[in-house]
Amino acid sequence: MALEKLLPEGLWPVMLTPFTTTNHVDVDGLKQLTALYLEAGANGLFANCLSSEMFQMTDNERLLVTQTVVNHVQGSVPVVATGTFSRDVATNADFIKKIYDTGVQAVILITSMLVEPDESEDILKSRLEAIMARTGDIPLGVYECPVPYKRLLSPDIMTWMAVTGRFVYHKDTSCHSGAIHRKAQAVAGSNFGFYNADTATALDSLDSGARGISPISGNFYPELYTHLLKLYRSIGRTESVNRLHAFLTMMDRATHVFYPFAAKLFLQRRGLKIETNTRIPAETLANVDHIRLNALMDSFKALAEMYEIPLVLP
């Protein structure tokens, strides 16, 4: 793959999937959500991911969600989507082709779906090779998804993946600055773009060569993250950038509670016309949880005012 095919730097939201009150995919709501990400300055979109409740959807629904997003962006930003939901290589290869036919720029492989927890990285490499052999020249990516279990990659296998020329996207969940640095350096200068899922280590990862970030808090207030990235790329890691990052790091703790329900509720309170239905069971929020969510909203608006960040209105 030529260097001009590099995926762009910046924010890559891990997209939610709105559902109707009858628990069907809300296509109109998904289009509104996609528009919000774009208006907030997202540089790429990861559809059909863990935040999308991909394990709670059928193959047809996964294809519907991905196709809807691809059609709506109309090429304005690249879209990637997950294609592995089985341990079987042939089954995975078949669905990878179907997902790619929706028009995505790359199909994402879930590391923990390819091997069992006790299987070696050599076995993982052999499964990757088998998938590559069955999928032509389809661009691929990997995601260290925490479900069904977290399978982190070593710098060595990432170097090998970069050399193949097939891999263009890596969503990292190391959550450790040292590990991130070693892995980012392993793919430096290649087409294998490194995108960090963790807010706390976001700036450290950018310092190490990451092309962007992909945190779940980007589903609550993507404007703050695109502004952080814009500042970092334009003026470096200044005191002002570090301060904004510190606020985001503290706020990030609140976004992980009752997720993805809380993210849908937050967006609904922002004015997005979606339901809060999730297929992942969610407990009822206690009064104190609503107070915390309100405080998160207040913090978001205060930061937007402090840094003069225009808010996206659905």
Note the main attributes of this structure:
314 residues; alpha/beta; TIM Barrel; eight-stranded parallel sheet; 12 helices; 8 strands; globular
- Tell me about the largest β-sheet: 8 strands, parallel
Q: Taking Cα atoms only, what radius of gyration do you get, to the nearest Å?
A: 19 Å
Please state roughly what percent of the residues sit in beta strands, choosing from under 5%, 5-15%, 15-25%, 25-35%, 35-45% or over 45%: 5-15%
CATH architecture, please?
A: Alpha-Beta Barrel
Average pLDDT value? 96
What shape does the CA trace take?
Answer: globular
Order of helices and strands: EHEHEHEHHEHEHEHEHHHH
- Low-confidence parts, pLDDT < 50 over ≥5 residues? none
CATH C-level class is Alpha Beta
Instruction: Give the helix/strand class.
Output: alpha/beta
Q: For the terminal residues, how far apart are their CA atoms? A: 37 Å
* CATH topology descriptor: TIM Barrel
As for the number of domains, it is 1
